[in-house]
Description:
Blueprint: H1 22-25, H2 27-36, H3 44-56, H4 59-79, H5 99-112, H6 119-122, E1 133-135, E2 150-155, H7 159-175, E3 179-181, E4 184-185, H8 197-200, H9 203-209, E5 215-217, H10 222-225, E6 237-238, H11 246-260, E7 262-265, H12 278-291, H13 296-312, E8 321-324, H14 329-335, H15 342-356, H16 370-375, H17 383-392, E9 401-404, H18 411-421, E10 425-426, H19 428-431, H20 434-437, H21 444-456, E11 460-463, H22 468-480, E12 487-488, H23 492-500, H24 506-522, E13 543-545, H25 548-558
Parallel strand pairs: 2-3, 2-4, 2-7, 3-5, 6-7, 8-9, 8-11, 9-10, 11-12
Antiparallel strand pairs: 1-13
Helix pairs in contact: 5-17, 7-12, 9-12, 13-21, 14-15, 17-18, 17-24
Amino acid sequence: xxxxxxxxxxxxxxxxxxxxxxxxxxxxxxxxxxxxxxxxxxxxxxxxxxxxxxxxxxxxxxxxxxxxxxxxxxxxxxxxxxxxxxxxxxxxxxxxxxxxxxxxxxxxxxxxxxxxxxxxxxxxxxxxxxxxxxxxxxxxxxxxxxxxxxxxxxxxxxxxxxxxxxxxxxxxxxxxxxxxxxxxxxxxxxxxxxxxxxxxxxxxxxxxxxxxxxxxxxxxxxxxxxxxxxxxxxxxxxxxxxxxxxxxxxxxxxxxxxxxxxxxxxxxxxxxxxxxxxxxxxxxxxxxxxxxxxxxxxxxxxxxxxxxxxxxxxxxxxxxxxxxxxxxxxxxxxxxxxxxxxxxxxxxxxxxxxxxxxxxxxxxxxxxxxxxxxxxxxxxxxxxxxxxxxxxxxxxxxxxxxxxxxxxxxxxxxxxxxxxxxxxxxxxxxxxxxxxxxxxxxxxxxxxxxxxxxxxxxxxxxxxxxxxxxxxxxxxxxxxxxxxxxxxxxxxxxxxxxxxxxxxxxxxxxxxxxxxxxxxxxxxxxxxxxxxxxxxxxxxxxxxxxxxxxxxxxxxxxx
Length: 559
C-alpha cells in the first residue's frame, strides 16, 4: 500500500519515482533533446549569466558585486553627460579670504559714519564696578626649615613659556622644601635668543621677594657639583610627563632628591598640572604676580613707551588700544591658511614651512584643507581684518593703537588698509629711536617683554591668535584691574563667516561687531575652573572678592 500523495499526479510518475526536472519538462528542452537524448551544450554568454545569477543569489555575492554594479552605472551615466559645461561647486561660506572685497564695499559707509560714541571710555561697562576683586597673596613671615636639596631646571620655549617654567619651578621647589637654582634658559632655534634670566628679569628682586617662601640661589655650591665632576649632565635628569600632578613630585622626585641632594629637570615647560593644592597655587601666584618683574633696562624702555602712548592719546584721556597681531611669515606658514597673495604667497609659504619644519607638511598622506582651517577659526587675522573689526566696534580714526608684533609678512601691502583706518597706529619701532632699541634688537624675548609692558597698561587689549603671550596678559590684566581682563577676544569662527559675507551692509556688520565687543566685556571677569591656568584666571587663588559695602568703607577711610 502506497502512502497518500497530496500532490496532483501528472499521469507519468509513480509514487516511488522522483519528480521530473523542471528543465526536462520544458517543451523547448524536450524538443531539442528528442534528437540526441541529452540537452544541448550552453553558450559562453549563457554560462556567464548563469554564474552571475547564482552568485548574486547568495548574500555574500550581493555585497561583493553591489559596488561594481554601482560604479558601472555611474560610468554609464557619466558617458551621457556633456563636459562642455562643468557644474561649479560653491565653497562653504567663511572658507575663502574675501576681506579685501568686503572692505572695499563697506569703506564709503564706514568713513561717513559719525554715530560712534566715545567707545574707548565706555567699552567696559562691567569693569568699572570697582572693588569686586583685589590681590590677596599671602607671603610667609617665618623662616624656612633645612633644605632637602637643590633643583635645577631648564626653561624652554619663548618668553612666556619660560615664565610658566619659572613659576612652576618655584611652586615645586617650595612644596618639596628644596632650594631652587635660578632657572637656565634653553636656547631654541626658532626664538634664537641667548638671554639669561638676569637679562630679562630682575634677579635680585626675584630672590628677595621669595626669601621667606623658597630658597633661591644663583649657582650650585662647589661641594655639591664637585661630586659630579663639575658636569651637570652627570646629575640625574627627570624627564617628567607633561601636566604631572604634584603627587608625582612627592612620590617620585623627592626620594631621589633626598638621596642625591641635587636633581635636574629638563625640559620643564608645562610639567606641572594646573589643578593643584592651595599651597602650590599660592607659590605660583607669588612668583608670577609679585616676584617676576622685568630687568631695569626693559622696564625703563617699556614705561617710556607707555608714557609716549598716553601722550599721543591725549584726545582720549590718555587711553589707547593694544593689539597682539600674529601675522609674521612663520605664523602664516604654520597655519597653512591661504590669503590673496597668489603664486608668490604660495612659494613664500612653502619655503618658510620647509625652513622651519622640514618635511612636517609634505609627509605622504598629509592632507591640508585651508578652507576648513579658516572655517574653524584657526587662521591668523590680517591687519585689514583687525581694522575692520575695531571700526565695527565703534573705534574711529582718532583712536591710538599700539601694535605688538614681529615682522609682518608682506607688511607694505597688508598694513596699508589698517593704517588707513587707524592713522594714529604705533609700534615699538615707531615710538622708540634706533638707539633706544639697539640693546634689545637681536633678542626676541627682550623685544617681546617690551611689547608685554605696553600692552599691560593699555585701556583695551585685543588678542587675535592663541598662545602664551595673550594668556599671560589676560591674567596679569585681571590682577591689575579688579579681576576684569579688559580684553577683546573675538570668536574667529563668527568672524570668518562675517568677513566672507559680501551681502552685509555697514549697519548690519557693525551690529555684529558690537555684539562681539559686548561678549568680551561680559567674559572679562571669569573664575578659574579646576583645569584652567592660574596665569590666565587669578580669581580666586590669587585674588579675593570684596563686597561693595566693605570697599566703600575702605575708600572713605582712605580719604
